[in-house]
Design goal:
about 140 residues, mainly beta, Lipocalin, eight-stranded antiparallel beta barrel, 1 helix, 8 strands, about 15% helix, about 55% strand, signal
């Protein structure tokens, strides 16, 4: 059995990675001259069991239309994880979806709001949450 500290770190990185992936999940343009295509990077805070931890993330997406599959990696001081996510466009600049990280058995929901070349992502999963900002 893994020590609680290792599980917490792995979970935190998984949550952060999920956030990053969800940020990149929209293949449709947000506004004239802008889209989510390409590479995105940034970071934010992951909170697991009430303990905040900083995370840095990178992500890219594939697909088109209203659904996009995300691939990305996030790292915290204690480790990194890679995972995928799927989002759908529900408004002009808003995307919702879900993520799953089989490495740590973490699943949850996410909401992404795009503002120009910046994305704000909110992630929620059992036992934790995350808030990230990614830039193009």
């Amino acid at each position: 059995m893994k020590p609680i500290y290792v599980m917490r770190v792995g979970y935190g990185a998984a949550v952060a990675a999920a956030l990053v992936f969800s940020l990149n999940a929209s293949a449709e343009p947000r506004a004239a001259g802008s889209s989510l295509s390409g590479s995105w990077s940034g970071g934010g805070t992951v909170v697991i069991g009430g303990q905040p931890e900083r995370a840095r993330c990178r992500a890219s997406y594939s697909g088109g239309g209203s659904t996009v599959v995300m691939n990305g990696t996030c790292a915290t001081a204690s480790g990194s994880v890679s995972q995928t996510a799927r989002l759908r466009r529900v408004g002009a600049n808003t995307y919702v979806g879900s993520f799953h990280n089989p490495q740590h058995g973490v699943s949850g929901s996410m909401r992404v709001t795009v503002n120009g070349r910046s994305q704000n992502v909110q992630l929620s999963a059992a036992g934790g949450s995350a808030s990230l900002t990614l830039r193009h």
